[in-house]
Known about the structure:
The complex is a heterodimer. By secondary structure, chain A is mostly beta strands. Chain A is built from no helices and eight strands. By secondary structure, chain B is mainly α. Chain B has a single domain (2-14, 30-257), classed as Cytochrome Bc1 Complex, Chain D, domain 2, CATH 1.10.760. In chain B, 44% of the residues lie in helices and 7% in strands. Chain B contains eleven helices and seven strands. Chain A binds chain B through residues 3, 5-7, 21, 23, 25, 28, 68-70, 72, and chain B through 42, 45-48, 50, 52-53, 56-57, 204, 207-208.
Amino acid sequence: MARALINVPAKAARGEIIEIKTLIQHPMETGFRVGYNGAMIPRDIISNFVCAYNGVEIFRAELSSAIASNPFLTFTTVAAESGEITFKWTGDNGFEAIETAGITVA
Amino acid sequence: MRALRALAAGLALGLAAAGAAEIAPGERRSGYDDMGPQTRAMQDDDSANPGMFWVLDGQALWSRKEGAAQKSCADCHGGAEAGMKGVSARHPAIDAARAKPVDIEERINICRAGRQQAAPLARESKELLALTAYIARQSRGQPVSIALDAQTRSFIAQGAAIWNRRQGQLNLSCANCHDDNWGRKLAGAGVPQAHPTGYPVYRLEWQTLGSLQRRLRNCMTGMRAEAYEYGSEEFAALELYLMARAQGMAMDAPGVRP
């Protein structure tokens, strides 16, 4: 299982703009490199990332070969209500990672 | 003619003396001090520093039973937070049985082979880097504290000799860049003073974490010199010299470097 590091404030005031940071362990092998044996190294990348806030999609990214390994994505949202923020990364070779973080909005 | 030759000799001497100039303690700067604000922010934030993946992997390995002895590191050392605090800051250290300096990677392998009765981990393997990063993390903020005594003296001198010796097709010494030209630019890169306080580091150019020896091999290749082997006595001495040179500076591993 790939490790992911998520940084979401545990508490926020209603209407506050919060910053969300995500870092995930992944080689992001481009598919353009040649290995020591002379053969192409097959592409192995994360191609999609989706973040949902209480089930509603708030951020999505499409990743490509040009993204460095261990992709770091950071974005902002408005703290609307208490609940759960989910993060899902999918990619080559059936790669899938899911993380969740709770937030209390008062 | 003779006067000119004398002048040339004088200049050469002057250059040699400048080459031997060590950095005054008050002028020492870590690699972190020389980085841009973005890279620093990445290192400082544990949820943005990719080196933390290796720290977390190392934490898991710490309590995994291994080898014929079926013992984990934790079985003997307890929690790493207390037991490994400051340990990376005082390595390389003299191993009593070998009467030679060993770096932290070698120290881990001595326990792997001797205490766990397991096969030693290869240099730059994921597992060895993970344990090194986890142990180094326990020294964050601790001052480098190499034992400066009769036992280490000759090895530090050996490391210093390597540091000051011109080698490779470009006929450069480590000191030519890191003592004499730190703060200047080499192509796009800033020349740092080469203090090893942040190792192992996540290097953005490598897109992965690497050991101090990997970094040193990079510099040797850049000098077009034949790089010493991983785990060689030359590297142990060079690492010891570098740490002695950074004595008292704060450890900040796992670092992030451009």
